[in-house]
Every structure is written in C-alpha cells, then in structure tokens.
Amino acid sequence: MPQNYSKSINSYQEALKFIPGGVNSPVRAFKAVGGQPIFMEKGEGAFLYDIDGNQYIDYLGGWGSLILGHRHPGVISALEEALKKGTSFGTPTELETALAREIVAAVPSVEMVRLVNSGTEATMSALRLARGYTGRNKIIKFEGCYHGHADFLLVKAGSGALTLGRPTSAGISPQVIADTIVAPYNDLTALDEVFAREGENIAAVIIEPVAGNMGVILPQPGFLEGLRELTRHYGALLIFDEVITGFRLAYGGAQEIYGIDPDLTCLGKIIGGGLPIGAYGGKRRIMEQVAPVGPVYQAGTLAGNPLAVTAGLATLRALKQPGIYDDLARKIKYMVSNLTGIIQELPAEVTLNHIGSMVTIFFTPVKVKDYQTACHSNTEKYARFFQCMLARGIYLPPSQFETCFVSLSHTEEQISQTIEAFKKCILELSLP
Ligand code: HOZ
C-alpha cells in the first residue's frame, strides 16, 4: 500500500512556484478530492509509478487516451522508428494520409478529415466550419458536456470546469457566448422548444453521444435519434464529439453503436496513442469548405505531427486485431458485475453508470441521466472514496465528474484487486 509521498510533496511545492496551481490542467490539482497531486515517473501496462516508487493500478488511462495501456510494445517500437526520421517537418507526410484513410474507413460518416493538435482544437474548428457552411451563428451544446476550453463552449461545461464549481469560466465576453444555447442532456422536449424558437438560426448541435465529462451518462433510448431528426429538419449540422468515445466504445465509436450518422465528428485521445492530437471530419461537401479548398480558415504548426500520427496509427493497428473489443467487454463485465454485487450487498448510496470500457461510480442513489442528477452526487463522499482507493494503490480520476477507463492491459488479477479495494472503501464509507 503506498505510504510515502515525500518526493511528490517537494515536487509540488517546487511546481507551485512556476506553474499556476502547480499543474498544467486544473483537474489534475486534486482540488475536488483533497490532498495534493501525485507526481508520476512512469507507466507500464496498467500500472502508474510515482516518483516515490509507489505503484498504482491506473484507471485514468491518460484521460482516455491509453486504451492499450502504458508503453504498448507496438506503439513504442513504431515511435522509436519514427524518432530516427525526425520530430516535425511542417510539410505533408504519407503518415497523415494513412491515419486519415484509417479514420475514414473506420467511421462511415467521416468522408474527409483534418488533423489538429487537441480535442479543443477539433471542436472549435468543427463549429467554425458549421457556421461557415450554414451561414448561421447559433449553436446548441448540452449542460455538463465538455468540448474543450474554447471561449464559446465554456458555458455550463463539465470536466474540470464542473469539478471546480465554475461551469462557466471568467474571462469570457458576453458577446462571445451570446450565440451559445445550452440545453439539458437527454431532454428532447426542451430541444424541440429551442428549435421551434430558434431553428432557422442554429448552425449546429454539438454533443458527446455518451457523456464522459460529467461522469458517464448514457443517451436515453430515442434521444440521439430524435436529435438527428430535429437537426435534419431545421438544416442544422449534428456534431458528435467523440474525443472520448471514438475508437473506445467500438472501432467506429459511439455512432457505430447507436447507428447515428452525424454530419461532423470530433476525435482525439486514442487516435494519438498518448501523444497530442485531435481531428475533425465528416461529409465531403462540408469538409471541402475548409481552407485551402474553401473559405473556413484553420491551421496549425504541429498539426499532423509525425510522432503523434505514428503512435495513433500503431494504436489503431492494435485495435483492429480480431476480438479486441470483446476482450475489453469481458474485463468490464467482470468488474461491473462484481461492483454491482457489492453495492447491492452493502448499504451504499451509489449508482454505477457504464458502457464499454467507461465507468463512473456516482455517490448518489438517484438514477444519473443528466447534469442535474449528476450534481446530486455527494462529492465529499467521492473525495473520501478516491483517497481510500489511492491508499490501496488504485488511481481513479480525481473528480466525481470524470470517467474511469479500463484498458486492454488490465489483467483479471488487477481488476480483482480493484474490486477488493472497492469493497473495503465502500464499507468504510458506509460506516457511521
Ligand atoms: N477531457 C479531459 C477531461 N475529461 C481532459 C482532462 C483535463 O482537463 O486535463
């Protein structure tokens, strides 16, 4: 069981002198779970190792990037080869076409794709494109969905923004968000009303088809279908933000599972195999509005970076092996059925939401189906649960409003250890 954090404590003090909050992304700061961030040294398979030598079974998975686990041999050897050739050219490479071809083959709604550097860039660019294509200004996003930190999307946002209790950021001019309409997730009636009022002005609706940034929340039956119908009816584009779900829930993402054909799709995380990347793509007639073909400008010095693309291609190659997603499903089934058994056995006010290899343990007995119900969660209990699991060598996301990711590298033994720790921690929390 990890005990000594002395090096992490010193490193944090040092980081605080030079980096705001000592972290390069707010949700890493442990503000929602107490204590201080732990500084990692390395990862191997399903394990993370901190600078004090403590070992953790990792369910953060690079915030969803590492579906194969840390240092997958296929990814590492591809990167070693790529490094011999250089790190950035600022010119086209065949690698970029190879990744684009692979994405187009995997996701039928995507006929052309543009690579960028992050999920934030992908959503920001997709929405600029939607506005350019439709000639309309308004966009709809959903409460608790997080699409990166572009100004006009940081309204009632999930992830770190929700964790810090600031779902709408300071520093954003009212004019910038005047065209952002926020609707409740899983509520078609509310959406109907918005379209009836504003339909002709709406350029696009952007949605996480399975929400992962207010914890895992599944679309209710008919919700995505209704959304597709409404957007078609009013001539607005439907944008799926599959930065988390792309290549995770299935090779073709959430849209493959739910059988929806969005106009544009945003990707990230897994397609970079742990290196910085993002992508947006969709119907050819829309994508051909992007510069240099069309008038919608978007650019990037490191876009399509050879290392990121190499790691992404190696990851997708591994994911194409037969039976991979079944293997992942088996692991998660074993885990979830055991956790569910424990929840039923103990007087725990806990709700488990999961799909594919995404899981959130909400500390509320209420069915969690949207932002409002997610906010019923007892975040103080989550914090205690997080610390209890951490002390047992299990690394979970440091916030109630995030997703635990199971990777292909998790073994049955590691999952059993996690189940054991879960049982002890839930029991501890249930005691008066
Ligand atoms: N999309 C990730 C959160 N769900 C990013 C993590 C971060 O904000 O650092």
Describe this structure in words.
This protein has 432 residues and is α/β, with parallel strands linked by helices. It has helices at residues 6-18, 61-64, 73-83, 94-106, 119-134, 159-163, 174-177, 188-198, 223-234, 253-258, 284-287, 306-319, 324-345, 371-374, 379-391, 412-430; strands at 40-44, 47-50, 55-58, 112-116, 138-142, 180-183, 202-207, 237-241, 264-268, 278-282, 351-355, 358-362, 394-395, 404-405. The chain has two domains: 6-71 and 323-430, Aspartate Aminotransferase, domain 1 (Alpha-Beta Complex); 73-319, Type I PLP-dependent aspartate aminotransferase-like (Major domain) (Aspartate Aminotransferase, domain 2, 3-Layer(aba) Sandwich), CATH 3.40.640. The protein is 40% helix and 14% strand. A seven-stranded mixed beta sheet has the order 4-10-9-8-7-5-6, with helices on both faces. Helix 4 (94-106) runs parallel beside helix 12 (306-319). The longest helix is centred in the last third of the chain and has 22 residues, at 324-345. It is globular. The two termini are 25 Å apart. The model has no long low-confidence stretch (mean pLDDT 95). (4S)-4,5-diaminopentanoic acid (HOZ) binds at residues 25, 27, 63, 159-160, 213, 402.
Secondary structure layout:
Elements: H1 6-18, E1 40-44, E2 47-50, E3 55-58, H2 61-64, H3 73-83, H4 94-106, E4 112-116, H5 119-134, E5 138-142, H6 159-163, H7 174-177, E6 180-183, H8 188-198, E7 202-207, H9 223-234, E8 237-241, H10 253-258, E9 264-268, E10 278-282, H11 284-287, H12 306-319, H13 324-345, E11 351-355, E12 358-362, H14 371-374, H15 379-391, E13 394-395, E14 404-405, H16 412-430
Parallel strand pairs: 3-13, 5-6, 5-7, 7-8, 8-9
Antiparallel strand pairs: 1-2, 2-3, 4-10, 9-10, 11-12, 12-14
Bound molecules: (4S)-4,5-diaminopentanoic acid.
(4S)-4,5-diaminopentanoic acid (HOZ) binds near residues 160 and 402.
